[in-house]
Structures are given as structure tokens and as C-alpha cells.
User: Fold these one by one.
Assistant:
Number 1:
Amino acid sequence: MSNWDVVIGLEIHAQLQTDSKVFAPDSAGYSKHANENISEISLGYPGSLPTVNRMAVEYSIKIGLALNCNIKKNSVFARKHYFYPDLAKGYQISQFELPLCEDGSIDFMLDDKNVTVGIERAHMEEDAGKSSHKGGYSLIDYNRAGVPLLEIVSKPDMTTSKQAAEYARTVRNVLRYLEVCDGNLEEGSMRCDCNVSLKPKGQKELGTKVEIKNINSFRFIEKALDFEIQRQASLLENNESISQETRLYDSTKNKTFSMRSKEEAMDYRYFPDPDLLPLEVSDELIESIRKNLPELPLEKKERFKKDYEIPDYDASVLTSDKDLAFYFEESAKASKNPKATSNWIMGDFLKSLKESQLSFEDLKVSPKDLGLLVQLIDKGEISGKMAKQVFADMWKSGESPKAIVKSKGLSQISDPEEVKSIVEGVVSAHPGQLAEYKSGKNKLFGFFVGQVMKESKGQANPELVTKFLMEKLKS
Amino acid sequence: MINEDVLKKVCTLSRLRLLEAESAEMLDQMSRIIAHFDKLKEVSTEGVEPLYTAVEMKNVWREDEVFQLTTPKSLMKLAPDEQEGQVKVPQVVK
């Protein structure tokens, strides 16, 4: 790829979690049956009038502020026309010349380097219905038609597929922190279109751009772009030209294929929607939303590093998800040992979480109990090895670590006198091995440790065992 | 400028099929419409802010509350064709 500069920009559609649609009072929620959440407005019947959902505007401003955008005090809704039955009106209400949010940026860390990606604009629009193609005819469900979306358009600032995927993850994390969008790529509450072009290394002028749609996971963003970069590079290296087109990504084949070419590209005939009045947002509204913004991922990460004195890597992992960050804070409060808590969360906890595919609200282990588990280790009541077993039990039953330690008789013997007497008993019971050890067979140290552990049913404090064994065997 | 090629493209985009006689008529009409806009373009608009609406009102909000305007069933009755509660339309993707 060394001959080419890669230029990538992303368009992210975020579905805003309002109760009702953006221009109609129909439910924006999930419905079991097709065409249940519809009205004359969302179907665009003649004479019906759309009105703007205040919450959708506020959510959009919230996202705009979190992405460091300028919130335009005056913006305008426009009609974007296309002939496709997934919107019955024959146009989609969107924003064109005057979007609500402009000129933002977002930062993230990738391979220990800070990356800044500019945000060109973020504009409000309505979602379309869902069509299923049956061969010969198509079926349309309009439940989703009119659900509020914010389309976030990045600047073409990314140069690798990895950056693009990380940018999308970062945006999703911000959306989730703001509690305005659940950011689920698979279910389509967040959708990602990638624009990519190649140009000879060092050239200023951009190459022909291709848009890739239909990407429903962060991993696929990377794979689809990698495929597309490779495809374009080999075309260019064979002196063939790239055609400006929209391509779909097929994850099962790991390929992109042409959906429509520029010649078929639609002329959307945008114009201001006469049914909707210009949107004017006051400074007071913008400031009150700004004041109520929650702590965002980057701020939280910096605070974790400072308040809990944990490394940058730990802080990044722990703040990569709002629920995880909350879990860590509650656990650390209970354990009073943030670094050990962080290790537990990044280790056994995340492993179990991934394997079980549970969501945070379904977890049986409370953050406080995880903190108490860490405390039991710190106090020497159980060993780290025992703690792993206790944790596995906590994960299954939700019982407190103390209850599990007690019922399983797992508590560690940390009384020096008790450990010492077990050690002495074991050594005197094995005079043969003792003699061999003294004659230089150092390997037998492990044998004695094993015997002490066996004798104490694995409960002797390992540090004390080592200490007393050394003393005893030397004498 | 409206010529045969532009008219063809417009027809494709708007899913229209014109007879030859209609094409000639359309070419003439569309050319006159464009000419009219060219006339409008001669007016100097320097210093004039773009007008987005003629209505002197702003921000007619709706609170985020769900309610039903018309029953979905009565709306679905007006669909050209229906199958499994969905609106049935001619094939849109080949």
C-alpha cells in the first residue's frame, strides 16, 4: 500500500432514543407487528403537517456539544427526494444547507498515539421504513419511518481502516455515555457508511471516492475498508480507473460489490420543507444542555488516572463503556485498592462477561461484592488462587464472597503459629526427603510446599509456607 | 440547457416514460421554464438574505409524547395492496 495515501471519512446514523417519532406522535419504539406505529403524518398523507419533537432536537444538540460542534442557532429542514417506497411521502425530511451542528472534532488514542478526527456536520433527519424484497414484489413496514436520526459526518481525516473502526467505537461510546442512542450496530440503531479513496502518495487532490454501506459491526468496518483499499489499489496499479459508486459489503464473502453507479446517482432535489418552520435554538437552551452534559469518556479516563492512580491503559479499558466504568468505581470504593480491582475487572470479570454475553443489568455479582473479594485477598484471608474459585462461584450464584469462603471452608490459614506447626509436622514426617534436600537436591523444596498444601487442604498462606519452610530446611 | 439527453435523464430519475410527441412538447415547455428562471437570475440579490419560509413563525414544537392520530388499521385500508400487515408494492430491487 506504500504507493498510495488512503483517505477515509465516515457517515454515522445514530437513532435517537425518543418515545415518539421526530415529526409525528407515533411511537418510535419497537413493535411486534408491522405497520402499527404509523399515522397520516409518517405516511405523508396530503394535508398532514409534521411538527418537530423537542426531545429529538435536544438530543441532537447534546451530541453536537459532546462532539465539540458549533450549534447553529438557525437551521432549516429540507426535503430530500427519492423514489423508493420505504418512505411513502416520496421524500425524506432531512437538513441540507443549514444543519444543526457543524465543525466539531473528537479525539481517541490508537496504538499510544492521539488521533483527532474532525466532524464536518451533524444533521437531523427521519429514518425510512423497512422493506423486504420477495422476488416479484416488496413488502414495506413503516414502523420505523419517521424515527429520529442524527447523521454525523466526519471529515476525511482517517488514513487507516483501524482508525476508522476506532473512530466509530469512540462515537458510539459518546452516544452511550449521553444516553441518547444505544449504539447497536447489529440491530441498526447505529449505522455506518464508509467513504474511501486512494491517491498517489503526497498528492493533494483527492482520488475518486467510493461509499461502502451495509456494515453492521466494528470488525466489518475494518475488513470492508481493507478489502476496498486493496481493490482500489490493484485497479490503480493496473492503470484502471475507479468509478464513483456505492458498494455494499457482504460479510460472509468479505467482499464489497457495486450497488449503484454515479450515472444512476439520484438527484435529490433538496429544498427547504415548507411544512416545517426554521429551527431556532436559543443560547439559553444550548447552555442549559451544555451544563447538564454528563462526564464524557475522555474526561472520565483522565479522572480515573488521577483519582485512582491507575495506568493509562487501565483507564482506557475501564472507560470504554459507561456501565463498566460505573462498575469499576463502585468496586474500587468497596475494595479500597483500585489497581487490584482494575486487574480483576480487566481479567476474570471481563472474561466471564464476554463468555456469558450477559449485560450489566443481568449480572449476579454486585460491584460491591467484587470489591470485598479484592479486600479478602488484601487482608490475606484467601489467596489469589482461591479468589479465582470464589469469583467463579460468585458469578454463578451471586452470593457474597464471605459466604462462599465460609461455606466452602476456603479461608486461608494466615496465623503464623498454625502455619509453622503444619510445616514442622510435614518436615519431620519426611526424614528421607529432608536428608536428600540437605545433600543438595534443591528441587525437593517444591515437594515440601506440596505436602504442606495437601496437609492444610490448600489453605495455608503461601507466603508464610515459603518463609517457614526456608527456615526449617536450613536449620 | 434542456436537450434530449437531459430530458432522458430526468425521465429516468422520475420514472417517467414519454412518447415521442410528448418528448417534443416537454422539451419545449421545460426550455421555457428554464428560460424563465434565467430571467429571474438577472435580478441582483446582493445583500439579500436567503428566505427559507414566508411564514413569520418559528419553533412550533411538540413534546415527546406518544399518541395515536388515526388507527393504523384505517390507514392500512388505503394501501394499494397488503400482505401480512405490510404494504405490498411492485418489486423495487432486482
Number 2:
Amino acid sequence: MAHHEAPRGGAHESGAGGPLWGVVAEFPNPGVLLHAAEKVRDAGFKRWDVYAPVPVHGMPEAMGLKHSKVTVIMGFMAAAGCTTALLMQWWMGEVDYPIVTAGKPLFAWEQATPIVFELSVLFSAFGAVFGMLILNLLPRWNHPLFSKQRFLRVSDDRFMIAIEASDPRFSEQSVRELLASLGGTHIDRVEEST
Amino acid sequence: MSTLQPDQATALGLAGRGRRGFDPDTIDGTLISDPSVRPPLVLGDRDFHSVTNTICGWIENRTPAWWFPAFMISAGIAGLGTAMILFLIVTGVGVWGLMNPVMWSWDITNFVWWVGIGHAGTLISAILCLLKQKWRTSINRFAEAMTIFAVICAGTFPGIHVGRVWMAWMLFPIPNSNWIWPNFRSPLLWDVFAVGTYFTVSLLFWYMGMIPDLATLRDRALARINVPVRLGPVGLPGMGFLDKITEQIVLPLNRVAAFVYGFLAMGWRFSTRHWNNYEKAYLMLAGISTPLVLSVHSVVSFDFAVSILPGWHTTIFPPYFVAGAIFSGFAMVLTLLIPARELYPGMKDFVTAKTIENMCKIITVTGSMVGFAYMMEFFIAWYGANPFEIQTFVRRAFGPYWWAYWTMITCNVISPQVFWFKWCRTNIPFIFLISILVNIGMWFERYVILTTLSGDFLPSSWAYFSPTYVDIFTFVGSIGIFMTLFLLFCRFLPMLAISEVKNVMPMADPHAYDVGHGGHGHNGHGHNGHNGHGVRNGHAANTGAY
């Protein structure tokens, strides 16, 4: 589940949990957030992320993200759907159970086309949704950020940047200073959930 | 707790905050006749927080008083339909009015009608998405839900019309001990794949679009868990111990909500790395759903067009069915949306008069296409000089089913033409009436096509089909099933796509905050003086528009 039973909210839990996961800061609006993300990217961080209630326009570029690979997954799935449909119709109709009805050939591409199309779409739709989830490493019902009461407002109207401790350039002091200089407020440390 | 009062924003919106100074001719300020001015998509001077509060508030607040009676009536009708289906299964399809030569009638009429209704949802979510029609964001979740429930109702009919329902699995290529496979050369089997794919893809699209909104509901439920609800003082003065007990109450419902919404949200945390994949997947799904929605009703029309019966064997059927499907679907969206818009406080700020007007225009366009198709059918019957074809069409219009034919013409061809007049497409009760007429007309269109069977090649076997009470109540029952599912959706799931609505608001644009960047890139409509920092007070004319 996305939450655990330990009470949270109220005072910041600095030093209360496990090892340090990262540092999170809040930003007032998408404009400041976008410029802050550009600066964090330019500072050379790799393991960090921007959290916003909407997909902010231009943010993937500002973060230096590459194009999503979900299209590749969908392409392979569409090819798989097409192949499955052709093989299924040919094998079932011509090889395993050949019955002549209305004098039609046992298998022909014209007659196979509707199902080839439908299965290609079906498979690539599964590729889109499950490919998106796999690329995002979801479902993951627990995450260190969920332990922060303020983070729950990201789903409403807050904007945050978190830089992870596993980044080679991470040092708590310098990251705090960087985020503060970019306009971040409520800078807080996030512990690994134990 | 004060930050999570869902009613506050709604109340402010209803009090008319931010609705100052617009021309009354524009109804709610969105029907601006000047095409160079883009009307706002979200009214009521709302920010992100008030959008979240309003849309989530419909779920989190106390169930509205009208909901229980509405649900009871719908569920009662659904129960009646289920009883009719059970009666059919234990007795046989003879309880329907089917006979030789009319061996398909209300069952297939209902199937085609329901599948067609579903098409509007996919059109709104996929085709309008690709066309960057931002007004779709306020109706797409609603319409997609309608699609899914309509396809559920549609799928019921072929399932039960096979007679021996326990053999319905033979529709699918499932390995079995008889070593037989379905006939892939039959359009009826293509239909199984088309409708099956359509249902699955619609469900995936709907669910994926809902993941961020489910996460919003999860987070709000979590926040409420952590704040004990104070119900007291319940005791009389001097009975302070009761007050103490009530102070500690944490509503168990919030825990259930947090668990269920949390489970369904799959740990979505609004990360940009996730949004990057999500947006691409969403766009690609819209891309593949577009040919899909056009293919589904084309394949449904093959059920008729691939046969060699006069009146059915025509190449016009696929486009004509697709246009009719979108036509009836938009009518059904309006039939559901107009009451919801009145019943849910604040919904009019999202579903604006402009949105309704746009939908009316689509109804007129698709209604005209359907009317053109009716004309072409007659023209080709005459021009083709095939006496059977001519006889079939003359019999449709002037034969025993003339009343069905002219009901169809009145409702489908004549009634949508009223939307050429502005009064008609801005008068909400009138639009509601027309939407009902279109629903009726489209049902009759399918009925007219099916009753073509009554005059087959052998005049001695011509017969007149009449439905039995089982036919009628099964159909009425399917409407009950549809409404029941829809009311549950309105009660427990976000009716509007929260993150998508936010994304078309001016404050979602990061460049709107760049002071001194007048005329920047994609939102610089210089003529209305967009200077980039008037996000809160100047939203009406600038960004985030249609």
C-alpha cells in the first residue's frame, strides 16, 4: 500500500527514520519549477526528479529526459499481434480444421485483415499501458516520498523537486543550498522507509 | 483540515466569484461570437486547488439526496432486465418475437445501438485529443465511462441471442475437446474480435487516464486519515466525557478509500519521469484508438453488408454506420451530461455552454452525414436498377414498417438540423429534448435495417415482426444496467479528468510566469494583449483557450 500505519504529519521527522534517501524542496509555480529543473540538470545531477500535478509543458526537455521508449514496446507488440492473428487464422482455418464453406478459400489475406488489424491494435494497447507501467517501475505502492505529509499535496497543487542521495554529486549541504538558491522552500530531508 | 474542505471552492464558485462583466449573450461568458477571441475553458476564477476540491468533492461529500432514488430506480430496471435474460436462458429464444424470416430483431438492434453509443466516448478521448480540441478535457472521462458501460450492454445481446448461452465461449478460438475452430471467414467472428478489442482498449484507455486522478483521491483520503474527525460536543454541558470520546474518531471509510484508491493508483507519484512515458503512451493510445473506433462499427456493418440481401449488401454501410454511431453517441453524452451538469455543483464551470454548443455542432454534422447516407441508399437502389433493391427500399418507406422509417427520418435527419440556429444550440432543455429524439431515431435506424428481413425473396414467407414483452423489457432492462453502472461511476470515480483539466488552465503553462516575455511562443496571441503575468486576473481571454 501507498502508506504505512506509522503516524506522520506535524513535526518533520528529521533523523527519525532509516538512511537518507534524498532532499526535497517545494516551488511556488510551474514557471519557477521549469527554470529550477534546468539549473539542476545543468549542475549535472542524474538521480533526481520533478513532481507536479500536471505534466508541465517542456519539463522533459528541461530535465534532459530522452524520448519515451513506450513507442518501441508498442511497435513490437503490434508486430506480435499481427503475426499472432495471421498464424492463428491460417493454422486454425487451413491446417487444423479445414472446412469449405460457401466455396471460399480456406485462408486469404482479405478475409484475415479485420482480425489482423484488431489484434495488432489490441496488443499494442497492452504494450502502451503495461509498457508505460514497466518503464515507470510501477506499481510500487510504497516510496520514501510518501512519508512526507507535504508531498501529498503534489497531487493537488504543489510543485516539488527531489534530488536523491544515490546521485554521485549528492551532498546534503550543497543540494540544500542549490535548491534554496533556485527558489525552493520547505527544503526537507527524506529517509528511506524502513 | 481546512485546506481539504471540498465545499468551500464550490460555494465560492456558485456565489459567482470571477463571473463579472461578461456579455449576457455569451450565456456564461464562453459563447463569444468573435472567432479571434478564445473563450476560457474553466470558469469561476479557479486555481488548481479549487479544481481538485470541486471534482473530488463530488465523491467525498455526502451522497446527494437524489442519488439513492435514482440508483434504486435504475437498479430496479436493471433487475427486471436480468430477470428477462434469466427467463430467456431457462426457456429459450422462443420467448422473443423472432420467427422466420425475421430471425434477427431487437437483439441485434439493441447490440448495434449500444455499440454505436459507445463510439462518442472514443471519439472524444482519441480523435479530439489528436486534433488538440482542449474542450474535450471536461467531458472525456464522462464519455469514456459511457463507452465502457454501453459496450457492456451491447455485448450482452449477442451473448444471449445465441440461444444456448452456455455455449457462448465457442465464439472465441478456445482449444476444445471437439477439435473444432471458429470460422474466420465470417464477419460475425470479426465482430467478436472487433468488439472485444474495442472494449479492452477502451477500458485500458479509461483506466490509464484515471491513474493520476485516483492518486489524487488516495492522497486526500490519506490526509484525512491523519486528521482525527471531531464530532463533538455531543453531550449536554457537564457531560464532557462524550466529547473526549468523539475527539479521537478516525473515520474507517477514509481508510477504505485510501486503500482502494491507493491500490488502483498503483503508487503514482506525479514524477516527471513517469509523466514523460505516460504522455507518450496516452498519445499513442489515442493514435491507435482512432482507426480502431472507425473499424469497430465498420466491422459491425459487415455483419449486414457482407451478406447478399437487398438493402444490406451495400458499400455505403461502413461509413454510414460510423457516422451514425458518433451521432448517437454524442446524443447519449448530452442526455447524461445535461442532468449531471445541473445536479453537481460547480460542474458548469468545466462543462461550459461552449462545450455543449460544440457537441451540438457535431450532432448536426454527423446527423447530416446520416441523412445523406439515407438519400444515397435510395439513389443507388434506383440507379442500380435492381428490382429487389428498389422493392426493399420502397417497402422500407411505404411498407408495413413505414412508421419506423418515418420516425427515423424525423428524429435523425430533421431534428438535428435545428442546431443551425443559435437559440437551439444554447437552450439547454431544448438540447436535452433533441438528444433524446436522436437516441430514439438511431434505435429506429437499426430497427429499420433489421426489419428488411421481413420481406425476403419468397413473398409467401413475408411476415410482420412484433416484439413480445420479453423483447421490450430486456431492452428497457439494458438501459437500467447502463444507468446503474453510470450512477456508481458518478458516485465513486472522478467524473472529470482532474489532471487534464488542470493542464489546460492558464496557470499550468510555465511560460505564463515569465515576466517581460510578451508574445512568447505558443501562447502569444498578441492581439489580446497577453503580457505573460496576468495569470490570476486575466485568464478569460488569453491562454488555455479552445
Number 3:
Amino acid sequence: MDWYTFLIIIHLIGTVLGVGGATFAEIFYFKAKKDGVIEPLEVDYLRTAYFVLRIGLFILIISGFGFLLFYRLIGAGEVLLNQKLWAKLGIVVILVFNAFLIQAKKIPMWLGASVSLTSWYGALVLGAWRTLDASFTSIIIVYIIAVFIMAGILEIVRRLLKIPKY
Amino acid sequence: MSTFLATFLVVHVISGVIGIFLFGGVALNALKQKPSLKTLKWFSFLGFLSLMISWTISGGYYYVTYYGKAVKPIIQAGATPWIHSVIMESKEHIFLFLPFAAFLAMFIFWFYGESLAEKPKLKSAVAVTSLLITIIGIAVILAGISISGAASIK
């Protein structure tokens, strides 16, 4: 197996764990909030989902830098200035700071949850959509719009399932 | 670039990223009402160790023996010379905060960790320090990516 294939596999594992962790964290949170009380077992499920998500983030970041090093060392380092790559990096940085803001309770939960889910799915889409030729600015504008669409979707789901407010 | 120097570049980048990630974990944990002291101690210790490896053993050697004579001239002669004069010049000074701030945070967790619960000001100060390490670290990482990219533009 060559280095590129190895990195692809590791990067995919990180993405699966991260996107899956973020999705299940939201599902478990909604289920836990449904009766208005978060019980110890539900806290345990949430902790597990966040743990998986963080492991995914770690694998994703390390394998992502593996790619950047790979391109640098094979002499294709100009990829490192690609606008799509910088948009993806920007989204990952937002994802990291969103985690700090949620932990410090400095961001409303509806926004924090939406930023987390949109960032994970956004990074997944940018990674998978190889032929996308868009500027940094246009990707970030679409990302910001997507954050509010995601917040709307989560609000609709919350109301449909009669889950108490965040 | 020789295999030896390429290995140093890989170690420099990966150990730096791991160090910053670990201090991100320290900051997240320290912001909790009841942080795990064991996690804080070991994450800060391993984070400090990673940053030292990234700075001294790998990055320092790479910078002294290779960057100045082989990478810097390419960037200066390329389309984005400001990436050396602004980004690299800033990076090579700003990053110096990281190992010292990391040592300070690690020292506090190992020697004053037990009393952090009774000293909320110290707890929030060390949480802010860890957060600053993460923020500066991310800026340094992004700078490194742009420098590597600029060195490849013909």
C-alpha cells in the first residue's frame, strides 16, 4: 500500500468517526432532552459520542497534515495555497473554537449545535467534492448560510418531536 | 531535500500539531467546572514535550541547516515574497511563546493542581494560558502551511 492510499483510509476513518460522533451527539441530546431531564445513562451516551467525535477530529487533523506533508515532499506543494483547502482549514478552525465556546457556555446551544454539524458535514463535502472549483469567500458564504439553514432544520425537528428548548 | 531532512520536517509538523491539539484538550478540560487533574497533568506534559520536539530537535535543525539556504531564496524570488518577510518572520518569533507558556501551564498543573479548586483565579488563568497556546499554535500552523505552499510556487 502506498502512502497516499494509507492517508486516504486514515482520513476517511477520522471523517466517519467525526461526522458520526457529531450526528449521534445531536440525536442523543434530543432524545435525552425529550422528557426534560438528562439522566446519568444519557449523560454517559453523550460523553461517548463526544469522545468518538474528538478521536475522529484528532485522526482527521493528523491525516490531513499527512496529506499536506505528502504534497510538499512530492513537490506538489502549490496545493497548499489552494483556496478550497484554506476554506476547509477555516471550517476546521471554526469547529475547534466552537467546541471551546460550547464548553465555556459562551455560545447559545442552538448555534453551537448547528455550527458543529454544519462544519463536520461541510468538511466532508469539501473533501469528497474533488472537482469543486470555488473561491475561499464563496465557500465561506455558503457555509455561513448553511449554518443558519441547519439551525432551522434542528429547530423544526425539535418542535416536531416536542423537545424542550435548548 | 534529503530523506533525513524530510523526516525532520515530518516530525516538526506532526509533533507541533499533536502539541497544539493536546493543549486544546487541556483548555477544554480546564474550562470545565470539575476538570480531571490527571488529564490536565498528562496532556500538558505530553503537549509540552511535543512542542519541544517540534521546536528544538526537528524545527530548529531544519531551519538552521536547510530553510535559510534552500527554501527562503525560493520564496523571496517567487510570486509571494511577503510570505517570508511577513509570515515567516512573524512565525519564527511568535512561536517562541508556545514552549514557555506550555511549560508554565504544565508546571502549574503538576505542582499546584491539587489546590486549583480553591484558587479559581489561578484555574481561570491557566485555562486562558492553555487557550492562548492553542490560538497562537493554530496561527503558527496556518503560517507553516502558507510557507510550505509558497516554497513550491515556481
